[in-house]
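Box 3.1 A note on notation
Throughout this textbook, protein chains are presented in two layers. The first layer is the amino acid sequence; the second is a token string describing backbone geometry. Keep the layers aligned when reading.
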Amino acid sequence: MKIKIKYLNGIRFKRFIVHSAQRVNQMERYLNDINVFPVADGDTGTNMSITMNSIVQGVKKCKESSFAGISSVIANSALTGARGNSGAILAQFFQGLAEATKGKVRLTTEAFAAAAIQAAEQAKKAISNPQEGTIITVMKDWANHLTEHAPYTPDFFELFKKSLSKAKYSLAQTPNKLQILKKAGVVDAGAQGFVNLLEGIVDFIEYGRIRSLEVEASAKGKIKNFKQNQTNSKINFQFCAECLLEGISQDREIIRQKISHLGNSLIIAGSESKAHIHIHTDKPERVFSVLSEYGTIVKTKVDDMSQKHTKIKLSTQTENIGLVTDSTCDLPPEIIKKYNIQIVPIVIQIGRKSYLDKVELKPVDFNRILKTSSERLLTSQPPPAYFKDIYHNIAPKYESIISLHISGKLSGTIQGARMGCREMEYNNKIHIIDSKTSSVALGLLVAEAAQLIQKGCKLEEIINRLKIAVDNIKIFISIPTLKYLMRSGRLNKTKGFLGTILNLKPIMTVNSDGYIVEAAKVIGQKRVVYKTLDLAIKFAKRVKNPRFAIAHVAVPELAQWYCDKIHNIFNSSKVMIVEASPALSIHIGIGGAAIAVLGDS
């Protein structure tokens, strides 16, 4: 006979949450697989698992025995570690639970049911456009069932077991409330995760453990009817942006109004002094800029959902070779999207703040900072974890992956790539190549690889042709002023001062070993522009089938002038023009430009 649980204190609730997190962890892959709403980016299981694990880390350190004490720690840990739509909603659910149980040492079933109602309502209010047939529906139905039966059910085990059945029934109805779920033949992934959380609690009370074999069998049976190819899902906004905002100076509804026009799937979860903001947007840097006016941003995360979207289409769209590069690669956005090129962002340091290149900070915004800021500006290589994440996301989709990066002599990025794939189960399919160059020259090589992949060339042939291309590419970089080279530490201040007095203008290139060297030096701004063009044209005439690309730092008119001159000489040549990444502009400064030329031997 089971011992009846007539009250919940902090110690018991802590155990319940720890074991419910174990169940969510078990279901991570399945939840990712059925994730089609609001975006089919295959990460609901991961997001819920990360959120729950953040809670577990928080409560394990907590010595509180009261329900209110533990509940407060759970709410704060969830808010700090929340990830994605589902994680943010869970965080607000636990925040509501904590607010409803302030000062409570222990709860009866009736008191818990009343708190659950408030928690479910809080979770719904956090969402800008709540949809029935999702996690909030199951939360509401479960909480309502608790309220109806708690007055007659003083035993928590009996109440949780009966309410779990109600939650499962509500979950089964989600496809009838949301058309995209019905088309895919799945239930809502976030709602499924919440039911798994409840299962973990009931299993722990009944068996003292979490049953894993039944979970696996259940998941395999359900996934057979999954029809992701019938959802016609698309990514309306490229990025999933999240941040933790502390010291809030305004009501959360005012904050919601200020950023709601920048995307969708907006969730603002939190307390009076702290908020976790989640939004799908094309302008994460703008979102963070607006939010910084209302508090202190202490933590940010930006995911490229278009990259994640590829992972969920495994069953209907398997491809041969994937392509990865880093954000020092300057390419037009339309080419990156066309060939599904995966970009690992470098890190930009502005004073004491760090940003992800081209994700949290676009080149146009960096150029404005470059022009006006007196703070120290630095760039650093991506940590190996960034590479590992991208390789992990796309490896199941491709037979092989080509990872082509900035010169190893200019950055430790390529070493980060090697460390990132080390000990991965897919490391044998990842082929890392040193481009021995950067910026638009790297862009031309990546575009070349993408076109060869699209033509259906074999992996070995593509790698061999890339190695030849590395020996047949040049970049010529005009430096209009020496102050940025001095500021970044690339040029000794004494030499820079003398060069400035003499009005010397260097033209830089990257040699065959991958080092930046001086290609020429002239006096005067007009001469540096003409000399840069002259060097590029002379090299282009020495190779077959020259292809051109131009990067500029806030001087589109100069880039177009270069382009027109190249067209006049090489009639059939296409010229890519792109704004230079911070990796280049931080050194050459406003007004600088680079011409890259790739030819056949």
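Confidence is low (pLDDT under 50) at residues 212-232, 310-318. The chain has 26 helices and 19 strands.
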